[in-house]
What does this fold into?
Amino acid sequence: MKVFYKSSLLMVLAVVLSVCFGTAYGAPFPTKPITFVVPSGPGSGIDIAARFVAEIFDKYKLLPQPIVVEDKPGGSHAVALAYTAGKKKDPYFILGSTASTLFTPLLGNSPVNYQDFTCIANLSLDDFILMVNAGSRYKSIKELVDYAKAHPETVTIGGSMVGGPESVNTYRLEKGTGIKLKYVGFGSGGDAIAALLGGHIDMASGNPTEIMELVKSNKVRILGILTEKRLSFLPDIPTIKEQGVNVVGLGMWRGVLAPGGIPEDARKVLEEAFSKFSKTPEYKKFHEDNMLTQAYLNSADFRKFLDQKNQEFSVILKDMGLLKPKK
It folds into this structure.
């Protein structure tokens, strides 16, 4: 009887420990829904991507628990960065990563940076296209560059805040051609495109999915793509390099981070799930439909990618005079 009582007590204790401590005692990760934190509002590129991830993960049961999307906009992604970093060691939160993951901390607008997170995977690349209003005097990038050389700081180009991707691309264009443009910052890239349509600025840039309907409706004219090579889904649109302007834009990415210090077994589960996701037919179709470049990177390669980009952006922002001195 004593032996039976002792065995029963041990079994009960084991169950309690299993419930309390999860994966450490046999319960597979995840045992509850995972929150995908989006650093911008509903309808943004990374929001659309996160909701697509949640849908496909559920369809193929890539994880035993669902992914729930939560938008945390504000502060050029600073709000979402701080919120997710505050979940340290908790693998039940993941964060959508874009270029602002690096830009915002480098500009001194976030106390945390990408090194405070665990890299899970990169999913996509989203490049920039230079465009003018359909009624513009500029029929090619060469015409615009020639005019800007003869008339410094008279050609206006719009984009999001100074220090954001569009302003960095503008700086690269200026450095690569010897011209000086007048940069006009807006609340978002979408606001800059609206200003272009209204004739308030001469030029703007946007991602392919943002502008192709405007091209089809003859509201804007493309001057070229800021990439090394033509985009496979837009084979008839030349790069500006092909037109004699040797400049490449920084591009955007859409990746996934987790809080720092999460358990290694949980990291592996998340990485494997996103690897399987990148092999689904829906992943390929999503990129075709949204004019994105497939660019899956595993955890280690995504970390190397961010290390390289952070160094690159640091140099550019310093050259632009935008880096705040460290205290």
Observations:
- Confidence is low (pLDDT under 50) at residues 1-25.
- The chain has two domains: 10-126+252-319, 129-225.
- The CA atoms of residues 178 and 294 lie 33 Å apart.
